[in-house]
C-alpha cells in the first residue's frame, strides 16, 4: 500500500507541472476580446427591390402562344396574380469596426453596396445610428462609413499584416447570423491566397470561424491591432475564412477618407503568367515574370515602348514573379508617376520608363475620344471588352478569323460575374446578333432591356457555350 501511495504521489508531482505548462502555453483572449469588442459594430442595411418574379414574369409573358412556357405563365397568373409584383424591402446584416473617435467605421463594400438605409449599432447601446457612406472601393471590397455619436468612441488601430506569420494566433469579432459580438479564435493558416474575388485579392487565410454576418469585422492579433478585415468564406467549408490584409486596407481607407475615391496606376496591357515551356521558348532560365499578351493602343504602355511578347521581370526595382504581383504594384502607384520596368526582350534585358495613367472604375476606361467606334476598350454589362485584333490574337483565342469582343475584366458583383464569364472569353453574339464593336454590344443590350435578359454566345479556348445575363430595366 505504501508503495502504491508513493507511486501515486510521484505521478501527481510529474503530471501537475505538465498541465500547468500546457495551460500557460495557451493564450488567454478574455481581456483582448473585452477591449477590442467595444470598437466592433453591427451594421444593418435595407434596400427597396422590385417584386421577386418581375423579370421571370416578363420572359414568360413574351413567349409564343403555343409555347409550354406560355401555359406556365397563364397558370401562374391565375393563381398568384399581381401579389408578388409589389416592391419590397430587403435587409442584410454585417459587421464593421471604428477607426477614429469621431465615428469613422471600416466595413466591406458588399455589406453596404446599393443600400438605401444603413444603421449602425454600438456595443452596449440600444440606439441605432444613421451611417453615411464616405467612400467605397469595389475592387478591394472595402467601404468607409461615418456616424455622429456625439461623444468620443473606442477605436481599433491597424497592424502590419506583412509582419504576420503563419501559425500566429488571431481573434475574429463580428455578428455571424445576426448573433451580435461573437468572438472566435484561431491562427493565420496561410498568406497571399488568391481566390478569384477580384483583381487585387491576396487574402490572409484563417481558421478562426467566419460566417455570414462576419463580413467587415476585424481580424485581430494578440497586440489588439487589426491585421485583416473578414471578407470571404468557402461555402460548406469548415475552418477556412479569408480576410483582406490590413497593409492593403489601411492605404485604401486612407484614400477614401481624404479623397472619397481611389486612384490607381494603369499600364494598359493584358498579361499572363509564365510557365516553364514559355520561359524556355523565350530564353528565360525560370518561369518568372509577366508575359505581355496585348498592349492597348494609345495607353501608357504603348507610349512607353512596351511590346507584345515582352516579359516584365522587374517593376520599380523589385522582381515580378506573376501577374498578380505586377497588377498590385502598379495599382499602388499614382497616375502620373513614372515606373521603371525591367523587360526581357529577344534574349536581353531592356529598361523602360513608363508614365502611368489612371485605372478607371469598373476596371476598363470608357474612351472619350471616339475610339470606341473603332473597337477600343469599353465596359458593357460589367464586362471590360474590346474588339479582337489581328489574326495572331484570333488564333490564340481559338477563332478562325478576328471577330467578336475579347473580355478583359469582369466586374465583381455584376450579373455577368455570377454566371461563369471570365477574362479571356470572347463574346461572339448577343441575342443571336454578331457583336464586333462595343457600340454594337451596347445597342443589343439596350434593345433587350424590356425583355430583361440578353443571351450571349461565348467562345472559350475554342469551345462555344451560351450564358443568359439578366438586365436591370431602369
Amino acid at each position: 500500500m505504501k508503495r502504491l501511495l508513493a507511486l501515486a504521489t510521484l505521478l501527481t508531482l510529474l503530471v501537475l507541472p505538465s498541465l500547468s505548462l500546457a495551460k500557460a502555453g495557451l493564450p488567454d483572449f478574455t481581456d483582448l476580446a473585452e477591449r477590442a469588442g467595444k470598437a466592433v459594430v453591427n451594421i444593418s442595411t435595407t434596400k427597396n427591390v422590385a417584386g421577386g418574379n418581375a423579370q421571370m414574369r416578363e420572359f414568360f409573358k413574351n413567349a409564343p402562344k403555343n409555347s409550354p412556357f406560355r401555359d406556365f405563365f397563364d397558370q401562374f397568373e391565375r393563381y398568384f396574380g399581381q401579389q408578388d409584383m409589389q416592391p419590397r424591402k430587403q435587409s442584410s446584416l454585417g459587421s464593421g469596426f471604428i477607426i477614429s473617435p469621431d465615428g469613422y467605421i471600416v466595413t466591406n463594400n458588399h455589406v453596404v453596396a446599393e443600400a438605401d438605409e444603413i444603421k449602425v449599432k454600438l456595443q452596449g447601446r440600444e440606439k441605432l445610428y444613421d451611417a453615411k457612406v464616405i467612400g467605397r472601393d469595389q475592387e478591394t471590397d472595402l467601404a468607409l462609413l461615418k456616424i455622429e455619436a456625439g461623444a468620443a468612441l473606442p477605436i481599433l488601430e491597424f497592424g502590419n499584416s506583412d509582419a504576420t506569420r503563419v501559425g500566429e494566433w488571431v481573434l475574429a469579432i463580428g455578428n455571424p447570423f445576426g448573433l451580435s459580438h461573437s468572438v472566435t479564435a484561431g491562427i493565420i493558416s496561410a498568406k497571399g491566397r488568391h481566390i478569384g474575388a477580384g483583381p487585387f485579392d491576396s487574402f490572409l487565410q484563417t481558421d478562426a470561424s467566419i460566417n455570414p454576418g462576419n463580413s467587415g469585422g476585424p481580424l485581430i492579433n494578440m497586440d489588439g491591432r487589426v491585421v485583416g478585415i473578414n471578407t470571404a468564406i468557402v461555402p460548406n467549408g469548415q475552418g477556412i475564412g479569408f480576410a483582406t490584409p490590413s497593409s492593403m486596407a489601411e492605404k485604401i481607407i486612407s484614400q477614401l477618407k481624404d479623397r472619397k475615391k481611389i486612384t490607381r496606376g494603369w499600364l494598359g496591357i493584358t498579361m499572363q503568367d509564365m510557365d516553364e515551356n514559355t520561359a524556355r521558348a523565350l530564353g528565360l532560365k525560370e518561369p518568372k515574370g509577366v508575359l505581355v499578351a496585348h498592349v492597348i493602343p494609345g495607353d501608357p504602355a504603348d507610349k512607353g515602348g512596351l511590346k507584345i511578347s515582352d516579359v516584365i521581370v522587374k517593376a520599380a526595382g523589385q522582381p515580378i514573379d506573376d501577374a498578380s504581383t505586377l497588377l498590385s504594384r502598379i495599382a499602388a502607384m499614382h497616375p502620373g508617376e513614372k515606373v521603371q520596368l525591367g523587360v526581357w526582350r529577344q534574349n536581353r534585358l531592356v529598361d523602360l520608363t513608363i508614365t502611368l495613367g489612371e485605372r478607371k472604375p469598373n476596371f476598363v476606361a470608357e474612351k472619350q475620344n471616339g475610339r470606341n467606334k473603332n473597337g477600343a476598350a469599353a465596359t458593357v454589362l460589367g464586362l471590360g471588352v474590346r474588339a479582337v485584333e489581328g489574326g495572331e490574337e484570333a488564333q490564340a483565342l481559338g477563332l478562325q478569323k478576328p471577330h467578336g469582343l475579347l473580355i478583359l475584366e469582369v466586374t465583381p458583383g455584376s450579373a455577368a460575374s455570377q454566371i461563369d464569364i471570365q477574362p479571356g472569353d470572347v463574346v461572339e453574339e448577343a441575342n443571336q446578333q454578331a457583336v464586333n464593336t462595343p457600340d454594337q454590344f451596347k445597342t443589343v443590350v439596350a434593345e433587350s432591356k424590356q425583355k430583361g435578359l440578353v443571351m450571349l454566345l461565348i467562345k472559350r479556348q475554342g469551345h462555344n457555350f451560351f450564358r443568359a445575363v439578366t438586365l436591370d430595366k431602369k
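The CA atoms of residues 245 and 323 lie 19 Å apart. The first helix runs from residue 2 to 24.
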